[in-house]
Amino acid sequence: MFPTARCLSAKPAGFFKRSADELGRLSRIAWNTETLHTPTKPYNLLDFEDDSAITGCKTMADRAVGGFSTANLDYIPADSSTGSPAHARFHGNISTKLPDNWRVERTGYAAFRNQDRGIWIFGRLYWDLDPYTYLALRIKSDGRRYTVNIQTDSIVETDIHQHRLYTRHHHVRSSDDYLSPSSSPQAVESPGIVAEKYPNGIPPSLSDVPPPTTIMSSSSATSSGSTGWETILLPFNSFVRTNYGLVVEPQTSIIRQRVKSIGIGLTDRVEGPYDLRIHRIWATNGMSEGELEEEQRICGANALPLDEGVRTGWTGKPAETIENLQENKDKNPKAKGLKGLRDEWD
After folding, report:
1. Could you count the other beta carbons within 10 Å of the beta carbon of residue 26?
2. What residues does 193 pair with on adjacent strands?
3. Average pLDDT over residues 141-149
4. Which of 6, 132, 211, 276 fits 90 for a cystine, CB–CB 3.0-4.6 Å?
5. pLDDT of 16 higher than 80
6. DSSP 3-state helix, strand, coil percentages of the chain (rounded to 5)?
7. Buried b / exposed e along 171-204 (16+ C-beta atoms within 10 A)
8. What percent of the chain is predicted at pLDDT more than 90?
């Protein structure tokens, strides 16, 4: 049987389309010699304005072991009346009720992630995020304590690097809630469970209190306007290595060259509904001028500010100097790609 044009263009993308897309992307990088400098443009990973990104994801919940939590990922079209972009809605209900199975001791979790990206002509397809500093997410949260999960092609396949998804409306749990039982519905983990999950103490990136090194600087911040949408930048080097929800030692950095999947989970074990909206997930080195218009349109007046490092190309020179250099470059355009590189060598 021969593949038809309809099969080749079907969603999610098939083998030939994946190969063509990846070859095209790598060819553009090589031709423009983008690997010789720090990227200033974002690298889209999951763009939920395209409904095919929904079909390329899978949901998970404790129902797989007999629990009663639910997880759904739906496509929501753009709404011009509210200015809301097309996005994915991750929603469902968390239940801590135990099934009639003595092997299951804990329930109350739900998550989603992209499915394996498949293979192309040179083997299994991964995301290469090595040139980037941050994982960026544009979301609209209900304030629950979500976790961002990254899985790589590591030696231990079940290892996941995690980071708390801090938002403007993030529900903060006090340190006393972790250390002693409480009647508060937010304090659901016993001291024994906390000691098992965090034998060396709660890592800053998984704590309920956002660490200043993660979100307080202008180049890595959480912001949202009246629209409820906000953009969050999480440094890759702040993610914590875990296995089945437990922090493991020794800690290792994310293998950014071979990222298999990215997703979001909810494991706070607080019963009730949850609702998280996700517009886009991408890798970046900071907010560029090209992204600023979309950021302000979606997030409103308190949108994430322009990153001066991206604007100036991390040269340390004033922006005005960079603009003058750009004007001179426009007047005397230089060849791009391999020809431009050859001219520099000559």
Report:
1. 12
2. none
3. 92
4. 276
5. no
6. 25, 30, 45
7. eebeeebbeeeeeeebbbbeeeeeeebbeeebbb
8. 32
**Distances from the Cα of 232 to the Cαs of 119, 204, 235, in angstroms?**
30, 17, 10
Highest mean pLDDT range out of 17-21, 44-48, 224-228, 302-306?
Answer: 44-48
Q: Say how many residues make up the chain.
A: 346
- Hey, how many other C-beta atoms are within 10 angstroms of the C-beta on 220? 21
Query: Cα–Cα–Cα angle for 24, 28, 33, nearest 5°?
Result: 150
The pLDDT score that the predictor gives to residue 40 is 82
Structure tokens at 269: 């074990």
Instruction: Give me the residue label for tokens 């074990």.
Output: 269
| Mean of per-residue pLDDT scores for the chain | 77
Q: pLDDT digit string (tens) for 175-227?
A: 444 444 433 334 456 666 777 777 777 888 888 777 665 543 333 344 444 57
Its sign, for the CA torsion 310, 134, 29, 17, is negative
Question: Where do we find the tokens 């499915």?
Answer: 115
Q: Which residues contact 127 (CB under 8 A, 6 or more apart)?
A: 43, 45, 117, 259, 260, 262, 283
Q: Residue 122 has what pLDDT?
A: 60
**Helix (H, G, I), strand (E, B), or coil: what is residue 260?**
strand
Euclidean distance between CA atoms 194 and 301, whole angstroms: 39
The pLDDT value given to residue 173: 61
Q: List, as one string, the DSSP characters of 208-238.
A: SS--HHHHEETTEEEEE-TTS-EEEEEEGGG
Structure tokens at 75: 């496509």
Q: Which residues contact 251 (CB under 8 A, 6 or more apart)?
A: 240, 241
User: Over 70: is that where the pLDDT of 34 sits?
Assistant: no
The conformational region for residue 296 under phi > 0 = left, psi -120 to 50 = alpha, else beta, is: alpha
